[in-house]
Amino acid sequence: GxxxxxxxxxxxxxxxxxxxxxxxxxxxxLEKGGWRxxxxxxxDVYFYYAHLDSYGEDFxxxxxxxxxxLLGYMGxxxxxxxxxxxxxxxxxxxxxxxPLGADQEMAVNPYWMLKYLENKKLSYSY
Length: 126
Description:
Number of helices: 1
Distance between the termini: 27 Å
Oligomer: single chain
Number of strands: 9
Structural class: mainly beta
């Protein structure tokens, strides 16, 4: 994955939006990932968004997501029991996993995907 660091170190300040249409596959706390959400795209790519401060809404597995939809807000959660914060700077950890077949996936570095999307940034106000 790639860590996208926050310029302003305030949890909950920066919105996190979905890169792709898809379906919520995982949501909730992970010891290392903190508050996270995982979206499975129509092309079977899994997008993992971790260390969220909070969610944009009460997501559940099976919820349909649209590209650009608010998922939550960048935070510093994780690396401990549920609710742990402050173990590292505010950031978003983005993981991208592509299918290899037979229930196998390969993690790919999303850096170049993010560089491509950089000139397609959304203006967001909240």
